[in-house]
């Protein structure tokens, strides 16, 4: 194998070497500064290694991981004002029981849970991350009422052609629970309907509202 400075590429090599020397010379100060920073970096790495060996080093938690660690569930948040309008329309058109319910209950906030960390796992919740802060159309198909619970049956629509599917077996928006009854008990409403212990008021055609997908 020919040496670069001899043979076919001898003239080219001389030119390349000259150009390289000129570039290095022009940037001598910068290269020197990099070398100093590199030496400092090496010292810092060695110091960290010493701390690890002594058991003194704690892996830092990134702000993103820390933030996600506080997230419990993914949901579609629905404006309360829109819900009040929806329920008012329902009461006027369909059922006086709905009107009585509205008059006796003051809804403060509302959401449709898509996935809960405890029930569905961290990954299931995280999978909704790319849709956060985006609007989602929701079809409200029915109102389920018992003496202790009330919820709207809801079917989320799509975002940019991607269907938003709830991990809950029965997607719904909890409107009210009696004192001492946890919101998760609203999941039992379909079964209570079958047992004759709750009312099922179907909306045909469904009402459509718009919410925003959020982490909580």
From TrEMBL:
One GO biological process term: tRNA splicing, via endonucleolytic cleavage and ligation
Pfam families: tRNA_lig_CPD (PF08302)
GO-annotated molecular function: ATP binding; RNA ligase (ATP) activity
Ranges for domain tRNA ligase phosphodiesterase: 62-197
Chain segments annotated as transmembrane: none
UniProt superkingdom: Eukaryota
Keywords of the record: Ligase
PANTHER family: TRNA LIGASE 1
Protein's UniProt name: tRNA ligase 1
Organism: Helianthus annuus
């Amino acid at each position: 194998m020919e040496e670069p400075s001899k043979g076919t590429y001898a003239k080219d090599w001389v030119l390349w070497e000259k150009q390289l020397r000129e570039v290095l010379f022009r940037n001598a100060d910068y290269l020197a500064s990099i070398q100093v920073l590199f030496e400092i970096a090496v010292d810092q790495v060695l110091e960290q290694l010493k701390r690890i060996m002594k058991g003194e080093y704690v892996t830092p938690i990134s702000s993103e991981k820390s933030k996600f660690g506080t997230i419990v569930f993914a949901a579609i948040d629905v404006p309360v004002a829109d819900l009040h309008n929806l329920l008012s329309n329902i009461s006027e058109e369909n059922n006086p029981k709905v009107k009585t319910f509205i008059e006796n209950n003051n809804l403060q906030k509302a959401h449709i849970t898509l996935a809960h960390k405890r029930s569905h796992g961290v990954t299931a919740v995280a999978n909704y991350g790319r849709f956060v802060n985006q609007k989602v159309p929701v079809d409200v198909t029915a109102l389920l009422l018992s003496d202790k619970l009330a919820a709207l049956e809801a079917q989320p629509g799509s975002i940019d052609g991607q269907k938003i599917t709830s991990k809950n077996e029965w997607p719904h928006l909890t409107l009210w629970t009696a004192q001492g009854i946890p919101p998760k008990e609203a999941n039992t409403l379909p079964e209570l309907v079958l047992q004759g212990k709750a009312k099922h008021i179907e909306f045909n055609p469904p009402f459509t509202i718009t919410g925003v997908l959020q982490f909580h």
